[in-house]
Design goal:
Strand content: 25-35%
Distance between the termini: 31 Å
Structural class: alpha/beta
Shape: globular
CATH class of the largest domain: Alpha Beta
Number of domains: 2
Number of strands: 20
Radius of gyration: 22 Å
CATH superfamily of the largest domain: Alanine racemase
């Protein structure tokens, strides 16, 4: 790849690897008998969405009404907004319902009534379940609230109960297939119990590690999976075991501004506004981005990673030689956050792919 045209921190997307990731997880969902409804918050690109459509996907997941509008412009007409409904969404939803069938996350009876009164078209709703992770949703054993939501919907003319959803972040702290399976066991057990109690409900899981590693038999009672990170993967997913480094499809090229030979350290033009502040602990140090050699095979530069960030600066420690051609290739720690900080991707053959920015 010709780096001479690069003047600033730039996202590099390997289209071949990305398409392979899409097709691999789509095939895994098919073998497991699950509907594949990927989350588009990771890539936020109409063109990458087209690649996913080519894999047979017809319904998608997003995290905001603005993201839903963006993808509805490309004829996606079955959209789940995987964020708890709040009334300020109403004006956007009134516009969205003209373009797409909506599925919303609802956890309060008053919101069911409000949407039934305000929207023109029928919509589905999902009850998000908190399996103990403590982020959002209804406690899995709060059957009084769950029953009241379902019973309320049956009295209204526009809303229909679809099912239950869990995104269990505990799999992101797991290691290997057995660790991920153990981390997700409780969520699968909760969804199985809910399915037994509400047999007409659909049940959905939304994390990349379980979607990438578990066997089809582990998803026997799961109706739908909604991962997002799988489209690119990242250094965190390599550490979990969700993928190999050769399956990561997104990298950041950072200009090297200064090299300190005695300290084996380089100062990069690449800070928190280019990479995010996410990190993993590696060799007792915070790793904000792993240096790699990019090519047909991708190789990690052992012991060379970004150990400190400010807004624009990044400290690359463990750099045994001065960065080749004045640039460093970095595998991001969390590709979802890193991708969101840039307004386009540059492919390995120099083509620009436009995207949106989340906020």
């Amino acid at each position: 790849m010709n780096l001479k045209s690069i003047k600033k921190p730039t996202l590099i997307l390997d289209e071949i690897r990305c398409r392979k990731n899409i097709n691999r997880v789509a095939e895994r969902a098919k073998k497991a008998g699950c509907i594949f409804r990927p989350h588009f918050k990771t890539h936020q690109s109409i063109e990458i969405g087209k690649w996913i459509r080519e894999a047979g996907v017809t319904g998608i997941t997003v995290s905001s009404t603005s993201m839903a509008h963006y993808f509805a412009q490309d004829s996606w007409d079955d959209i789940t907004i995987a964020f708890p409904f709040f009334p300020a969404q109403l004006p956007d939803l009134k516009e969205l319902e003209k373009l797409s069938k909506l599925r919303l996350f609802l956890n309060e009876n008053i919101h069911l009534q409000l949407l039934n009164d305000e929207l023109e078209n029928p919509f589905d709703f999902v009850i998000e379940i908190d399996p103990g992770f403590g982020r959002t949703g209804v406690k899995h054993n709060n059957f009084d609230l769950i029953d009241s939501l379902i019973q309320k919907s049956e009295k209204l003319d526009k809303c229909s109960f679809h099912g239950f959803y869990i995104h269990d972040g505990r799999t992101y702290q797991a290691k290997g297939k057995s660790g991920v399976k153990k981390a997700i066991e409780e969520s699968i057990s909760i969804l199985t119990n809910l399915k037994n109690r509400y047999p007409d409900a659909s049940v959905s899981l939304g994390d990349t590690p379980s979607s990438s590693l578990l066997d089809p038999t582990d998803f026997e009672l799961i109706d739908e999976i909604t991962p997002g990170n799988f489209v690119f993967y990242d250094w965190m997913q390599v550490g979990i075991g969700s993928c190999t480094l050769d399956e990561v499809a997104l990298f950041v090229v950072l200009p090297a501004a200064q090299y300190f030979q005695d300290e084996k350290r380089a100062m990069l033009h690449g800070g928190a506004v280019h990479l995010s502040k996410d990190y993993i602990v590696q060799n007792g140090k915070n790793n904000f981005g792993q240096q790699v050699q990019f090519g047909q095979q991708i190789k990690a530069e052992e012991g060379a990673f970004i150990t400190a960030l400010s807004q624009e600066h990044g400290t690359l420690s463990g750099a045994s030689t001065e960065p080749k051609n004045g640039f460093v290739w970095i595998c991001p720690i969390h590709s979802c956050l890193t991708a969101n900080l840039h307004d386009y991707y540059l492919t390995a053959d120099g083509r620009k792919i436009e995207k949106r920015i989340l906020s």
